[in-house]
């Protein structure tokens, strides 16, 4: 079980740090916290792989699928 959790945390961190531009991370973090009804502190614990929180496959997939550029593209096309 611990190995699976570590894999999810690694996927989550890679999606957050490597896919999302630095300037857009706060907006994505706020959207994630709203979507999953968690606080920013809990988000930080999930990001660091803290023992007090659990990572789910759904949260991981959400972070991997999120595209922070979508609103900007929609505004540019109109």
Automatic annotation (TrEMBL):
Q: Which organism is it from?
A: Spirosoma arboris
Q: Which domain of life is it from?
A: Bacteria
Q: What is this protein called?
A: Uncharacterized protein
């Amino acid at each position: 079980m611990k190995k699976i959790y570590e894999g999810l945390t690694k996927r989550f961190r890679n999606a957050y740090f490597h896919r999302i531009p630095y300037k857009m991370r706060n907006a994505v973090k706020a959207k994630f916290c709203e979507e999953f009804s968690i606080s920013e502190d809990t988000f930080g614990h999930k990001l660091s792989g803290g023992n007090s929180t659990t990572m789910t496959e759904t949260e991981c997939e959400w972070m991997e699928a999120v595209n922070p550029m979508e609103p900007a593209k929609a505004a540019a096309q109109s």
